[in-house]
Amino acid sequence: MHSEKIQAFVLSTIDYGDNDRIVSLFSLEHGRIKAFARGARKSRKRFGAALEPFARIEAQIRIKTGLSGLQQTDIVAIYPAIRRDLAGIAHALYACELVECLTPEGHPLPRLYRLLAAYLDHMETETASEGSRRFFELNLLNILGYRPSLETCSRCNTPFGEAGALLQDGGELTCKACLGHGTPIANAALRTLKSCLATGRFDLIAFSPESLHQAGNLLDHAVATHAGKRLKSLEFLRQVNI
Fold it and tell me: Which end of the chain is more exposed for a tag (fewer CB within 10 A), N or C?
């Protein structure tokens, strides 16, 4: 078993015993992994502040099935501006929990790694916003293959026209001919979401208030369906956004 250096984001940590921690990491090289950090609760020299949630680190680690061994860490970015802002903290924790919940273990996802990096970098210089959160969610779902079809009805494959779509339970989008009930999603909201998939830059696409509301409704359903559980960070995020 060899030791290697990886790039990773800290998704979460759990205290183990009096001295140790189990750390959930999202790495560029191996995707989501769990690692045992021996002495992490006492050793400031080996780990310092590098195991704080949403810290970006370089880590020396022994990779193995189940629980890897975290040996040493160096901070790449701790995101101090985000940590000074309650809304920024809420959005960053939510992004990390979403990645932790939806990604398979031990499967590299370099596009998603770059998306998470871009999102945190963006929030370090700009105020966290609902639009950037929805941009992140949509692109995350797209990378993982969980994105609802924004172009055609999921039942009959008919393209959505000016009439838009109907949102069903579970995040499915249908046309009115297939199902006459559901929450309306206007064509303008669908166009805005498709524009978000065509650019890699946060806040380049502006949502109208109505499109943001409808897009949020769609993405909330899609995320809840694939997460399969209540996200702890989501309640905190909603409280901050009130």
Answer: C
